[in-house]
Amino acid sequence: MPIRIWVLVLLCAIAALAYVHRVALGVSESSIRADLGLSTEDTGQINFAFFLIYAFCQIPAGMLVDRLGPRKSLAIFGLTGAITMAAGAFGGFTGLMSSRLAMGVAQAGLFPAAIAALARWFPLSQRGRASGFLTASMSLGGAVGAYITGQMLGVTTWQNIFVILAIPGILWAIGFFVWYRDTPAEHWQVSTAERELLAREASVSSGGTRQPTPWMTLLQSRLFYGIIGQQFFRAMANAFYLVWLATFLQNAYGMSKEAAGQWTSVPLLGVVLGALIGGAVSDAVMIRTGNRRLARSGVAIVSLVIGVGCFLSAMAIADAMTALMVITLAALLTSLSNACAYTVTVDAGGPFVGSLFATMNMTGNFGAAAFAIILPKWVGWLNNDWHMVLLLVGGLYLLGALCWLAIDPRKTVLE
Prior knowledge:
Layout: H1 3-27, H2 29-36, H3 40-56, H4 58-68, H5 70-87, H6 92-121, H7 127-153, H8 158-179, H9 192-201, H10 215-219, H11 222-253, H12 257-263, H13 265-289, H14 292-314, H15 320-348, H16 353-381, H17 389-404
């Protein structure tokens, strides 16, 4: 098996572990409140603090990745994230808040570093699929983490769970640093054929540059604004599945809390499948046409527009299960663009992939946060007609598709 596949396996593993660590607090929330005598406002503040510092640390962490390279960065951020997971078990509210803040900093650097590693190890014709697996592993990590944490709460304390879940991350960081190398040429297990393939299809190397990030150049790039714009609108719309879907099903279709919670997982499965399929489709178009813009922007625009059509169709459906299946199809289609978005940062970032991806990811987090404010106001303006939420979500995805018109990954943000 090519060594780059093992690199991808390791990157997917740490991405999944990061989401396991994220969801553990949410699943354990009621136990933590009861044990520490906290209120829901207290635990809400802890979650808010994590996402706020996670968003604001994206750019500094991405710049650090560009300077250190993926190997050192991933080992540092992976180890720090795991240690802070365990530290959350100690010190009451203050300890939990401090550990989540530190985890937010660590996880802010994980994903820019993973993308920088992908840029070095995968040729142009395979980056879509690699990005698809990476994005899908995040959703899978969240689902698996929620299940494991829930099962473990039945047999042990939340403090023990936090410590136990930290162990794989510590082992991963040590093993990754020992085995991984920043370039295929440095790795002793890479075959001559694989080394030649990667050298032949390589774009500009990413990570490890001593040059400061040229922010003025990036801020004058139309491509740069297209990349962060599509992420802002897509992440805003994606928050519908992660945060509001169960509430939507209860209010729009009268589902019980239990049923809505169970059926929420179906569109999320569509998100996972969409990421995987999107990466494969993007690479297939790339191989067949050799046109990077068609493979990335073309696939993203077509899938988003068709997905918007599904959302609009679901608005007219009265049966809850039928509407849910159409929404799931929309989730799958709109998620085809996930891999395209990750891949385009690799294509267009040049030696500053970490900084570009971090800026894109930060912008997306702000979009997701904005959705939490916009959706309740939207429903209020429309007399609590929750069916109209689908119009809002579809409109956001359409705006994301329009941003893709400005993205030409045949260029870099430095041009």
